[in-house]
Write a structure and sequence with these properties.
The complex is a heterodimer of chains A (253) and B (261). Chain A is of the alpha/beta class. In chain A, 34% of the residues lie in helices and 26% in strands. At the A-B interface, loops of A face α6, α7 and α10 of B.
Chain lengths: 253, 261
């Protein structure tokens, strides 16, 4: 494919003789949102690290476009409290411009934490700050490893909305790892269902009907199809759009 | 008489200047035990230097480097937890150094001065060595500063952003080995880590940026050298330990200040 930013052909990777990824072939096209889903230990993070070049494949080839600039949002960053660094300074490591950093914080919705020491950010603020740093490099590929973890339910919706809006505002491709099928399916172009090998991949609607997908996510998939409601993290019943349904236990006015 | 104090003072200040920023990295990257291991192996370097009749500074630097690089190699195999590994290497190196020195029956080696420093015996020639060593270390730290900060925050992000993480890490080890070699004369192998981490820890409370912490740590270390040396002069205490005690007192004072950043 001509417009592929990254393409993999028959890539294999093992750690201490334990095969993690086998025979992976895939491509990331510019402007496309790709989501990797799969159970714990399926090799999702390893696949991300191969794309980033943090680990190299045992077999197979990974080709990258010459124009590739990658912005990476890791699962988390743990900074020792003895390290004095403000959030602004953390962002300036990627891009010195004060104005750009300010705009990035504005974009991810946390302009007020500019002077806050990085290690004092809350879980949700930290995720947003990491996203800000990733976009500061003006990437044409954003790589997000579980971008919404430790973000509350409403925040997750908001953050996914922000991520899909980044595609058009930055004009970049996005590849992310996610556990949350409901939230991801609606805003993704391409889904890769991974369990050491690629079980199936394609458009969300195709993947959803693939027997391999149903094998792994059967229960969740059925749940997604047959029920007319969802649950939030606290188990509250929500309607299909993720809004609160009125009823017992509703605390709002 | 002025030389008698001037040379030790200049030597101490030179080492203190570089101990500040390097000590910050030791604190930030939790390398204290790593520093100890290198410092303890310095004694083995002295022993081998005497045995093979080569310059002691060179011998110490080389041994520290070998130790640092082999640590990296063994660590990557992940056989043992890092602190266990460091404990084994650190104490074996110290023990091996002591054994080899005891075997050198025809050479008199002043063990106390190796273990706790011998600042008052510094000569003009030592000053050259200390200042060129400290100069090289400071220039390297300043050149690599941005990358060092980046890998300290998060090595994988740094890697994706184009920093050669392995090279910068190795450079930091070389700098550490170099500083340990020159600091040995000042505070001795057992107290080198103290000179690195105590001023940096004292600087933490009043620093809001990595740069200010590095500079404040340098000045704290220098102040410790001046007051330690003064103590040593007036009440005849050993210079190296007096410097460390001064640094500790400054650290205790810093605890009373309001935490910045």
């Amino acid at each position: 494919m001509n417009n592929a930013l990254v393409s993999m052909k028959s890539v294999c990777k093992s750690f201490t003789n334990k095969p993690i990824l086998q025979n992976i072939s895939m491509a990331i096209n510019s402007g496309e949102i790709t989501t990797i889903i799969g159970p714990n230990g399926a090799g999702k993070s390893t696949l991300i690290r191969l794309i980033l070049g943090l680990v190299s494949p045992d077999q197979g080839v990974i080709e990258k476009s010459n124009h590739l600039t990658t912005g990476y949002m890791p699962q988390k960053v743990k900074i020792d409290p003895t390290f004095p660094i403000s959030t602004l300074r953390f962002l300036q490591i990627a891009n010195m411009s004060n104005e750009d950093c300010h705009n990035a914080l504005e974009l991810v919705g946390i302009p007020e934490v500019k002077k806050t020491p990085f290690h004092r950010l809350s879980g949700g603020e930290m995720q947003r700050a990491l996203l800000a740093r990733a976009i500061l490099r003006q990437p044409n590929l954003l790589v997000l490893d579980e971008p919404v973890q430790s973000v509350d339910f409403n925040g997750q919706n908001e953050l996914y909305g922000l991520i899909s809006s980044l595609r058009s505002s930055l004009n970049c491709a996005i590849i992310m790892v996610s556990h949350d099928l409901h939230l991801v399916m609606s805003s993704t172009d391409h889904v890769i269902c991974l369990n050491h090998h690629i079980c199936c991949q394609g458009k969300p609607e195709q993947v959803r009907q693939d027997p391999a997908y149903l094998d792994i996510f059967g229960e969740t998939a059925l749940y997604n199809h047959q029920h007319n409601h969802k649950h939030n993290l606290q188990g509250k019943v929500l309607d299909v759009d993720g809004n609160n349904q009125h009823g017992e236990g509703c605390l709002h006015d | 008489m002025i030389d008698f104090l001037l040379y030790p003072l200049l030597a101490g200040l030179g080492v203190a200047a570089v101990a500040g920023p390097l000590g910050c990295f030791v604190v930030w990257r939790r390398m204290a035990y790593f520093g100890d291991t290198l410092a303890h192996s310095a004694l083995l370097g002295v022993a081998l230097g005497v045995l093979l009749n080569i310059d002691l500074g060179v011998a110490v630097t080389v041994i520290c480097l070998v130790m640092a690089l082999s640590l990296v190699a063994i660590e990557q195999r992940g056989v043992l937890a890092l602190d266990t590994l460091l404990g084994i290497l650190s104490h074996s190196a110290l023990a091996a150094g002591l054994v080899v020195i005891s075997l050198l029956s025809d050479v008199r080696v002043d063990l106390m001065s190796l273990l706790f420093g011998d600042l008052l015996s510094v000569l003009a020639a030592d000053l050259w060595v200390i200042y060129s060593g400290a100069g090289v270390a400071l220039v390297l730290l300043a050149t690599l500063w941005k990358s060092l900060i980046n890998i300290t925050v998060e090595p994988e992000l740094a890697d994706v952003e184009g920093v050669n993480v392995a090279r910068v890490r190795t450079a930091l080890m070389i700098i550490t080995a170099l500083v340990i070699a020159i600091a040995m004369k000042i505070v001795g192998v057992l107290l080198i880590t103290a000179l690195l981490i105590i001023p940096a820890a004292a600087a933490r409370r009043i620093s809001a940026t990595p740069e200010s912490m590095a500079v404040i740590a340098s000045f704290t270390a220098m102040l410790s050298v001046v007051s330690g040396l003064a103590t040593s002069w007036f009440i005849d205490t050993p210079a190296g330990p007096s410097i460390v005690i001064s640094a500790t007192l400054l650290f205790c004072l810093s605890l009373g200040l309001k935490q910045k950043g």
